Sequence to fold (390 residues):
Amino acid sequence: MENFSFYSPTRFVFGQGTERQAGELVRMAGGTKVLLHFGGGSAVRSGLIGRVKESLSAAGLGFVELGGVHPNPLDTKVYEGIRLCRQEGVDFILAVGGGSVIDSAKAIAMGCCYDGDFWDFYSGKAAPEAALPMGTVLTIAAAGSEGSGDSVITKADGMLKRGAGGDCIRPRFSILNPALTQSLPAYQSACGATDIMAHVFERYFTNTKHVETTDRLCEAVLLSMVHETPKVIADPDDYQARANIMWAGMVAHNNIVGVGREQDWNSHGIEHELSGMYDCAHGAGLAVIMPAWMKFVYKHDVMRFAQMAVRVWGCAMDFAEPERTALAGIAAFRSFLTSIGMPSTIRELGGKKEDIPALVQKFGLPEGGTTGGFVHLTSADIAAIYELAF
Fold:
């Protein structure tokens, strides 16, 4: 296990009706003027935004609203939010929604405390050192942004999807009411589950040795997702299954399962170009890319893939030919994704094979450069993974 520093300052308030505590939690965090940031009309129609506004008013807090965040959130909405916060003297941001809304709020929070263009953080030109404090009311279990120091934004000019991060954008609090996810369509629930599992796999496939504790934590989250996801697909109102998935989503990405070990993140980077180009759901893109990536790299450490196959998917260990076990595990993962309604090819996302050169170019590796932790990939490798995903 490697040396590490782990910081997770977020207060999690979990359970039914907890969104009514939003105002008091903002006040406890020192907020006085709030940007209420949210997505489409469903949060309004369901009455959630109304309940949150009542809570803010009851706590004596002023607020301004900025809705309209779309999946794969755009930089244009972030610029709008930064202007509004500065104009209105906002000192706290409350994101009500899923990962897209929370990521947009994080970008606004960073941008408000920076003299330059907030995109500098996402292009790698600068690292965030300060941000407005923020909290969340989570409505989708998927991205894990409610507990992480990460954010992903798409630049409208060129549809470049990029990430930024830092401990300064970890939420001060996150309200997690599983009942808020019960209205999600099955497809969206499945996309969220896929994203959660991908967050674990990006940490699980590592070159670091002697990480049994975090291996077992990763496997526990994956087993929970395998157990609970079919339940919510069959019965969207299964509160207990929703609760387990919601907490799994947070655990998967606040890095408790990833400390002390090298991580990869190639599948996420490769997928970002799909959702950037085709505007598909991130989880759907990961369902296509992750098995293709596994198939491409498994020979790098056959025994790690065999371990995954045995511990997560219940495959029998073939000690004479462990490669068979490794491939059986990858096949079991793909079959699970199909069983919950996820796509298995880029064609199903609306992609065309002739797009592969553009996807690789948008990934942006310099000539001769590589990316990744578990296996270092070249541009040719990335193109081969896209080919496999067709």
Summary: The longest helix spans residues 212-234. Residues 82 and 108 are 5 Å apart (CA to CA). DSSP finds 15 helices and eight strands in the chain.
